[in-house]
Amino acid sequence: METSSRPIKLVALISGLFVALLISWSSITYTIPSGYAGLVFRTFSDGINPDEAPAGQGFHFKAPWDRVVVYEIRQKEMQQKLDVLSSNLLKIQLDMTVFHEPVREALGALEIERGRDYEDAVIVPSMRSVSREVFAKYLPEEINTSKREQIQVEIEERLREKLASNFIKLNDVLIRNIRLPQTLEEAIERKLQQEQESLEYEFRLEKETKEAARKRIEAEGVRDFQDIVSEGISDELLRWKGIEATQNLAQSNNTKIVVVGGGDDGLPIILGNN
Predict the structure, then answer these.
(1) Exposure of 28 by Cβ count < 10 A (0-12 exposed, 13-18 middle, 19+ buried)?
(2) Which value, in Å, is the radius of gyration of the alpha carbons in the chain?
(3) Residue among 157, 143, 98, 85 nearest 125 (CA)
(4) In degrees to the nearest 10, what's the CA dihedral of 236, 237, 240, 244?
(5) Structural domain boundaries in the chain
């Protein structure tokens, strides 16, 4: 009876050793997936060392009493609907999206000072505070027109600086769907239309002024020409030109000249020809 129980005990012993080995193995190894990094919390030391480089993807060893904190280091996005005030205290609504990722080399400091919920603890409050600070400098009619690009750049610069001080890298900021009060939007639209009409009127007025100046210069040129011509024509010149014309007609083979009498200045009068 005792002999038959020995194989069973041996199998149980081997199984126990195998399970113990598995438990022991899982306690001294860990695997980091792609797009993540790991921080080792050393239980009997100083916990997480901010100066220690995080473990990259792949297989790693650790002490069985230590634990691993895993961080996603790929780019993530945070979207928020925000309410802000303009410089004249009118309410403005907008949608903001922030593309970000933790600074890999500073994961230890991020875990110690901000924790894994850093998006809610840092990014969302920063989006709200920066957008309110920037929009409060501008009038509503500037926000959707002349100052839109400037506002975008200013928000991005301030937000990048604020996140960097919290070990977070800002990749991009998108501001969309800026919504003003309806009455204000209608007033801005009317103002823009009036400005456009004013520009068109000024253009037409300038064009007509230039055309009037051109006609005035042209008329002055014609008048000056007539004055010059009038001053250069005398009675003697006209009689001489008449004599030349009569001689040319008389010498023409195809011309028959009938002289009836003389004109006031003594030139013959030509009545007909062949």
Answers:
(1) middle
(2) 49
(3) 98
(4) -170
(5) 2-72, 76-180, 189-232, 235-270
Q: Do the Cβ atoms of 130 and 166 come closer than 8 Å?
A: no
With a cut of 90, say whether residue 27 has pLDDT above it: no
Binning pLDDT at 50, 70 and 90, where does residue 25 land? Answer: low
Instruction: For CA atoms 118, 121, 122, 124, give the dihedral sign.
Output: positive
Q: State whether CATH 3.60.140.10 applies to domain 76-180.
A: no
Cα distance between residue 217 and residue 1, in whole Å: 135
Quote the strand ranges of the chain, DSSP E. Answer: 29-32, 36-41, 58-61, 67-72, 76-85, 91-102, 168-179, 259-262, 268-270
Q: Report the run of H or E that residue 219 belongs to, with start and end.
A: helix 182-232
Please report, for residues 44, 108, 171, the alpha-carbon distance to residue 47 in angstroms, rounded to integers and kept in the order given. Answer: 7, 10, 31
Do residues 110 and 168 make contact, with C-beta atoms less than 8 angstroms apart?
A: yes
Instruction: Decide if pLDDT at 165 tops 60.
Output: yes
Q: How far is CA 151 from CA 85, 94, 116, in A?
A: 14, 13, 31
Cβ atoms of 71 and 38 within 8 Å: the answer is yes
Q: Quickly count helices (H) and strands (E) in the chain.
A: 8, 9
DSSP secondary structure letter of residue 274 = -
pLDDT digits (tens, 9 = 90+) for 82-137: 999 989 888 899 999 999 999 999 999 999 999 999 999 999 999 999 999 999 99
Query: What phi and psi values does residue 47 have, to the nearest 5 degrees?
Result: 75, -125
Q: Could you tell me if 137 and 129 are in contact, meaning their C-beta atoms sit under 8 angstroms apart?
A: no
